[in-house]
Design the sequence.
């Protein structure tokens, strides 16, 4: 089923993520946007490939020799990044053809998303590319990130240097997923690859799915789509990929009005939403509902094991959260678990009344040796055979020493791969919550911004692990 | 319809929020929890009423004389806060009776929410109270906040001193809304009153609705409920109140499992969810779906005027957000508006191509005098008679000077009361986003954590303004 991803196709796609040599055609003026920023960002991130700035008005920039045109570059080029006025793009494409470059990222905008002249120009560069066997990413794209090799050619200043390696690949028809827009740094968010495919005149969601299917650094793929170019091909490929790795998709243009605007800003036709929904079901794609989910939900797959069943354990410091969590879990087929009798007894001996389906750590939180008790409680629950996944709610006091104690304890939980754990941190200090969340994720425990998001993460993780076994 | 809120009842309820003299019965040991914290928190917040600590083991605490028992206090007491072992609460209640105290907050837990003995004790104190005409808030409550007079008797250390005055009243059957749990300080979140009604053995959601109905400091009421004590009374009162001020309710216990756990942790019976839903519709209550909404959605009512219609304007720096916003807006009957021709022309003359239904400020963001253009764009749109409400998306660069420029511009927008504006800030630096959000809300412009939340805020604001005019 579906066409296999040929080696030569893969080699070209690979040039976008692992180029050994990159030409950057654009403004080299210091600022927030442009070729200067692309080069600086790659240098900051430790990219080891060769970088060739191209601009007729400069001799040298950021310690690199500048070439007046692509054809003057004496060596072979794997990838060209073009960020110049749209009218000049075809000329540069022709130079790329002559230079036998195989991969081009067109950051420049003003193509099919803008007006008829832009659409004409987009067709022109696509024709040139097809004739020469060049693949184009874009136009109108913020480009690519590969966290493994420091290839982060962001055209906008992101304000931070590193993107933490992780196993989430994020692709979208927007630059809102790129480092200048999303706070990867502040969140300690780990990614394998990021790709904004922009107007996707050539490289599209199907190419990326196939590329990421065989990317060993990627364990989960999350994607924002406005349109689908080849319905049948998308269905075949996504079905094959989703059988190996979770594929999460947020698709807009659900309403007629939305679809119309979508068409106008990417220049692509939208697909009927009901057809798309049916296709997702058939292909085993996890369909997302909100923008934030694009980033949050993949974490459960990248950091935690899949649950072996639907039995939900809950640790909370207030009953309210337990009730909301149970309500929410029911949406995904999660069922709150009665603890096994031995575990319930053990919990009750740690603190009277703890051994209930919703473990309420509110009362023990008031005692002096609370952190010792907390460690005992959590370790005991994690031994319960009646639980497949755990929703863990932590209250951060306004005191940093608490945060440190929690983290010390979580270190001892590393290597647990029996239960899926989703955490929600709540408390009066936002900086402490942010710090604790980032450090917990560094330890491998995903933290979610909402209780509902945490439960949804467990829910889709269960549904993915249960796929093909009949619905609950 | 419904019973009117009698003056004497109101006077007693008022003692909970505006006491002139407060007795605090509990531990006076320095720490994270207890009477010491209650007193310190009130002092920090500038509470001007008299405070009488009660504890037989102390002479003085935090500069205040400590009394061995309530009856030793030589002056009249408006309110007593009790935070001692549950078994001793009836004794203190008897002292309150003798002292003719009318209002008591029982912070102590371990009552109907814990076990049979607790349920018996709860009945005992309730009986005592009824005989003496005392009103009880709780037991099992984190108490009250009145931002206007510094009455913030939080039993847990919140880590910050002030709660910013605002017009949102928040009530819940949980302490998760109180300052030790929710980051009012970091968020610059403005409230009028906060009340955790705990087990609500006496003072309940109906009392609070009636009290807040006539509270001039409160313009919007948001409430978390697990159970409703008197269905008919609730329906009558909420209908009356919702006609004057928006009433937003999050109710859990939707599923059978959830309802069961809810009953066990508050000791109250839950209500059938479908009946509750119908009641909300009838009463004009805005029903919430997620915990976070409890805090976020009221901001649109407290800070912005109601929209005069359903015509949605969108300013975004990327097309994707426009499409998602249109899809989302359709859920609430919002319709993306075609700009009026003069305004579209003006926008196009500021920057070519801007004058579309979704105003994409992405292209002008790349130009040098961007902030001047931005100010012109936003002010022009706000003049359009074709727009009732505006979803404004701001990208924060990683640079603080941008934030300051945005804020300087927003200052000039203060006093706009023609359109409802909801803002979403997105960018690579979380500290800058947080800072900008807080400062924008200080200026009166609510910022939402999600694009979907911002649209929902506009949506329910439109629906509330349109109530009784027939559904769209």
Sequence:
């Amino acid at each position: 089923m579906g066409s296999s991803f040929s080696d030569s196709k893969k080699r070209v796609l690979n040039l976008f993520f692992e180029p050994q040599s990159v030409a950057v055609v654009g403004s080299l003026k210091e600022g927030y946007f442009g070729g200067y920023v692309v080069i600086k960002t790659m240098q900051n991130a430790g990219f080891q490939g060769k970088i060739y700035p191209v601009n007729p008005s400069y001799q040298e920039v950021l310690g690199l020799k500048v070439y007046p045109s692509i054809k003057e570059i004496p060596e072979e080029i794997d990838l060209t990044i073009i960020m110049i006025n749209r009218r000049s793009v075809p000329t540069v494409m022709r130079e790329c053809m002559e230079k036998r470059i195989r991969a081009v990222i067109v950051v420049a905008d003003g193509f099919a998303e803008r007006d008829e002249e832009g659409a004409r120009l987009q067709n022109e560069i696509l024709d040139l590319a097809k004739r020469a066997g060049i693949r184009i990413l874009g136009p109108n794209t913020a480009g690519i990130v590969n966290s493994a090799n420091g290839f982060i050619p962001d055209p906008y200043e992101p304000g931070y240097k590193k993107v933490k390696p992780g196993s989430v690949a994020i692709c979208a028809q927007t630059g809102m997923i790129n480092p200048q827009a999303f706070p990867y740094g502040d969140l300690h968010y780990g990614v394998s690859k990021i790709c904004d495919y922009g107007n996707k005149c050539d490289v599209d969601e199907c190419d990326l799915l196939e590329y990421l299917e065989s990317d060993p650094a990627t364990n989960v793929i999350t994607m924002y789509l406005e349109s689908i170019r080849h319905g049948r091909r998308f269905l075949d490929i996504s079905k094959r990929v989703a059988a190996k790795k979770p594929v999460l998709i947020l698709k807009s243009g659900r309403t007629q009005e939305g679809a119309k605007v979508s068409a106008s800003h990417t220049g692509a036709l939208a697909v009927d939403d009901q057809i798309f929904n049916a296709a997702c079901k058939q292909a085993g794609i996890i369909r997302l509902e909100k923008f934030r989910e694009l980033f949050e939900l993949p974490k459960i797959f990248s950091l935690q094991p899949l649950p072996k069943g639907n039995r939900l354990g809950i640790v909370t410091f207030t009953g309210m959260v337990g009730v909301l969590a149970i309500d929410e879990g029911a949406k995904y087929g999660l069922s709150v678990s009665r603890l096994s009798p031995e575990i319930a007894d053990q919990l009750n001996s740690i603190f009277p009344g703890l051994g209930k389906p919703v473990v309420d750590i509110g009362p023990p939180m008031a005692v002096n040796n609370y952190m010792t008790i907390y460690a005992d409680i959590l370790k005991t629950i994690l031994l319960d055979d009646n639980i497949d996944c755990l929703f863990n709610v932590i209250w951060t006091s306004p005191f940093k020493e608490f945060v440190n104690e929690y983290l010390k304890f979580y270190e001892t939980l590393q290597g647990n791969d029996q239960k899926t754990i989703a955490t929600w941190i709540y408390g009066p200090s936002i900086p402490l919550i942010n710090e604790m969340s980032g450090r917990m994720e560094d330890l491998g425990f995903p933290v979610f911004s909402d209780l509902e998001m945490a439960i949804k993460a467990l829910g889709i993780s269960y549904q993915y692990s249960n796929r093909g076994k009949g619905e609950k």
Remarks:
- The two ends of chain A are 28 Å apart (CA to CA).
- The domain at 304-465 of chain A is CATH 3.40.50.261 (Rossmann fold).
- The CA atoms of residues 22 and 51 of chain A lie 5 Å apart.
